[in-house]
Amino acid sequence: MSIKALSRRIGYDFKDPELLRRALTHRSHGVPHNERLEFLGDSVLNCVIATLLFHLHTRVQEGDLSRMRAHLVKEQTLSEIALSLDLGDELHLGEGELKSGGFRRPSILADTLEAIIGAVYLDAGFSAAEQLIARFYAPLLKDLNPKTLGKDPKTLLQEYLQGNKLPLPHYTVVSISGEAHQQSFEIECAIPALNVHASGKGTSRRSAEQHAADNVLQMLTKG
Question: Is 43 among the domain residues?
Answer without folding.
Answer: yes
